Each structure stands twice: as structure tokens, then as C-alpha cells.
């Protein structure tokens, strides 16, 4: 509450400063202004603003705000703009760089982990808004869960000789992190505090898995459904239940602390939708459809019901020269955008 009061006081002083600048500039334009010691120039505006808000404001935003007032005092900028937040785009806005046209985040937090190896890269990053989670997977096998709410992070290194992880997602019902690595499906129980490398490995898969996502449709809290794409153009549908872990666990062999489950014991429908690598799979709850894309120029993008993976009915697809590498859906505009 005290911080809120302090900010309100600082904001009130800032707005008074802006009003003073506008009056000063208006008088200057009408040749009615006489310079005195109380004049607000850029140096005084810069110093006062930083004194009021501290490091929360950046130099380029202070400069852009000052220039905007000086160029057109009749069109007052919103106070949010001093923090780099623009409520609307304006062709009249004067700015030192194009960077000022976007939302600038003044506070960043960097996470580093000793387990991350040199020359490693992030291959997947997924936000879980309901739990304030962010899940990441690196190419060389580091899976991490970051929690914004409680500021903790869990990581483990999935040891392998040549296998590279190519994607990850979060299973909201079973509360596992899922990742795919060539012929392997990894299910990590990040909640295990005693051993951070508890989980299951489903293998072998016939082809190399390249991407994975969760299908959020079922209300059954005991299961999750996963979509995967491989390097031969196939899209897979795998439903995992809590019973699978219990029933198949006794037959599983040990690999480190991950229990290996035979892929043959699962029902995994698949269908060849593309003639090249599947670059991305995604399920859109609003459309009740899944999408998959490929660099295939003929069957570049598919958008249809997940039931099409279990039958042989025609699918809705379209072609793009040299294929599609990425896609997304905007519910507000009701459009799907692809990038090739």
C-alpha cells in the first residue's frame, strides 16, 4: 500500500511537470514566454523523471516523451509512454528509434543452470498460464520448469549418447512434462523432490520424432492426449493414463531412474499427412481441430479433427510453395497465419 501511495505521488508530480512543459511550450509558440530559472529543458525533465521513477524508465523513452511534447503540445502523450507502453500507434509520434514503437519491458530476470552444457540450445518453450509455469527443453537434454509465482525452478539432465530432444509440452491432468527425442517419448515427473529424474520413457518409436503438443479436450483428470510428428510425415496420437504407469511399471526395465515402457504396449494411431518432415503440431481448443505443417510443397498444412488420425477420410489441407514452417491461430480475428 505504501508503494502504491508513493507511486501515485510520483505520478502526480510527473503530470504536474508535463503540464508545466505544455504551458511553457504554448507560450513560446505565441512569443509570450520569458526564460527564467524555473524553465523546464530536456536536462531538467530527464533528471526529474529519473528521480521520480528511478530505473523503471529508460533513456530512450524519456527522450521520446520529451520530443513528443515539444513537437506537438496540443496532443498530450499518455503517462504510460514514459515506461515504453503505447496505448495506440500514432504516425505523429516522434521517436529516436523503432524500438520505442513496441512495448519495452524494463525488468528482466535471467536464469542460469550449471547443468546446461556448452553449445546447447533451447528447442521448446511452453507457457502454462494456470500454474504460472514455463517449461523449456534444450537440445542436449535439459528439461526445466520455471515458476513465476513462487520463483523456483526444477531441472534435470536426461542423459543420452546421441539423442537430441526436439520439443516439449505440459500434461495438465497427469502433471508431467512430456518431451520427444528421436525414437523416444520422455515423461518427467517434475514434482518428485526426492529424485528430480523420476519419470517414464516410452520407446522405441519407429521414426524420428520432431515435435509434440498436448490435446486439451478431455475432462478426465486421469489421462492426457499427446500429438507428435516425425521425419517421415506421420502424425501420432497417444493417450496416456495414470493406469498405464501403474500397470506397465512392473514390467519396465530400469534406465537410471526412468522406467522404460515398451511402445508396443500402447495404442498409438498414426497417419501419414505429409511427404516431408513434420515441423510443428498444435491443437486449437477453440476450433476443436489440430494443425500440422511440413516443408512439403503439396501437403503443406493440415487442419482437421483428431479423429482423422484414426480413420482414412480426407483431411482439410492446402499447399504452399516450399511448404510451411510455422503457424498460429488468432481467435479474435478468426484467422490462421502460416509462415513458410
UniProtKB/TrEMBL annotation:
<protein>
    <submittedName>
        <fullName>WDR64 protein</fullName>
    </submittedName>
</protein>
<keyword id="KW-0677">Repeat</keyword>
<dbReference type="InterPro" id="IPR015943">
    <property type="entry name" value="WD40/YVTN_repeat-like_dom_sf"/>
</dbReference>
<dbReference type="InterPro" id="IPR036322">
    <property type="entry name" value="WD40_repeat_dom_sf"/>
</dbReference>
<dbReference type="InterPro" id="IPR051242">
    <property type="entry name" value="WD-EF-hand_domain"/>
</dbReference>
